[in-house]
Amino acid sequence: MATDSSQRRPGAWSRAKDLAQQTPESRNRYVDFLRAASIAVVVIGHWLMAAPAMERGTLTLNDMLHVAPWMQWLTWIFQVMPLFFIVGGYANAVSWESARRAGRPYDEWISARLQRLIGPVIPLLLLWAGLGVAAKYFGVQPTTLRIGSQVALIPTWFLAVYVMVCVAVPVTHALWRRFGIGSFFGLALGAALIDALAFLGDLPLLRWTNYGFVWLGVHQIGYAWRAGKIAGLAQALTWAAAGLAVLIVLVVIAGYPVSMITVPGEELSNSRPPTLALLALGVMHVGLVLAVEAPARRWLQNSRPWAATVLVNGTIMTLYLWHVTAMVLIVGLANLLGGFGLGLRPGSAEWWFTRPVWFVVCAGLLAAFIAVFARFEQTARRGVSSALPTWQAVAGATCVGLGLGFLARNGIGAPGPLGIRIWFVLLALGGAGLATGRPLRRNRSE
């Protein structure tokens, strides 16, 4: 029997328009727009940098930052993860301040936050664990799986860091209330000292502590934005100019890498681990985007751009987590088909001419992934039925961060009976279970 059209489930665009119409006037729509725009830039950047090619019958995973070094300058535009963390700082400030006014304790706040962040990554880990076991069964070389999964899990690297930044919000927000903009400059000074000691003293391991100073520093800028400390065209352009000036000094005079993204084969990286240059990039970006905040917020009062922003944000975690996996699986399929579509030399005129086709194919598979896996994100957005104990939430987040960080850096493939790094997979999944599962104690209300 035919279903009446009035009873059909509305499409994604219709649902986004309905949600857009319910937006309260007090909401800063520009925050949501920048979140969506930054993730869109990340997706485009990853798809553009990838340059797989068949060379003498063998698949080679090239990187355009290595093939065409001039593109490293483009990372000053396409490396927008600092901006994503700044937007996160603004959003976390709004959410945490609201929770404090309502008398909601930290355990309730962080439980809901972790549910939204960690829930969508579980199916991605399960898929790659399953692919790893299947690859072992079918005789795929561990190196092939390791490289493919390492590329595919790149997005989880920043998720791992952001989860820990969220865990620290009560501390960093308290520092903001106590010291204001000084809390940002204190972290920036810490990042500069770490770089100086590590580079001049040849202490490479020390550089890893900058995961705290740099990413907490850019997150602190979000607090400054929320508090109105970067308001108006003049202030915004001052921040942009200062960030650009520091960036130029670090790259041209101090010898920091040009690329703000890790370049395969290069000894130094500005992003893994992060350097003061990445923090300066965040300062420049926030100044540039806030310079146009007023007209952008007026533009977002229009229904279509705001509905589009709502649409993207509705599945933004799924979009972010799965876009590289879609690309990797397409490359793998092309390799199985004898290198179909991978015969062009990366960087050639013909290669550039086919990039729109490459984007369409990647976007097609990504859309399929969103259709299947967005439900996990939507379920996570409904929140948790009760708060987790603080120790459980923090322990779960820490395990997830360590597990994801290791897998993103080293890949999931490894020699062994299962063909995967089973202990780190279990660490990440176990942490996810702790951080998103049932509380290991009774609720206070019982």
Structure description:
The protein has 446 residues and is mainly α. The protein has one domain. It has 21 helices and two strands. The chain has a two-stranded antiparallel sheet. Strand 1 and strand 2 form a beta hairpin. Helix 6 runs parallel beside helix 20. The longest helix has 27 residues. The termini are far apart. The N terminus and C terminus are likely disordered.
Our measurement of the CA-to-CA distance between the termini, rounded to an integer number of angstroms, reads 48 Å
Number of domains: 1
How many strands? 2
Strand content: under 5%
Which structural class matches the secondary elements?
A: mainly alpha
- The SSE string, one letter per element, is HHEEHHHHHHHHHHHHHHHHHHH
Q: What is the molecular shape?
A: globular
**Number of helical runs?**
21
Q: Which assembly state applies to the chains in this document?
A: single chain
Give a quick summary of the entry:
69% of the residues lie in helices and 3% in strands.
Topology:
Blueprint: H1 12-21, H2 29-49, E1 50-55, E2 58-63, H3 64-67, H4 75-78, H5 81-102, H6 106-118, H7 122-137, H8 142-152, H9 154-167, H10 169-179, H11 181-200, H12 210-226, H13 232-253, H14 276-291, H15 293-299, H16 303-314, H17 316-336, H18 349-353, H19 355-381, H20 390-410, H21 422-436
Antiparallel strand pairs: 1-2
Helix pairs in contact: 1-16, 2-5, 2-16, 2-17, 5-12, 5-14, 6-9, 6-20, 7-21, 8-17, 8-20, 9-20, 10-11, 11-12, 12-14, 13-14, 17-19, 20-21
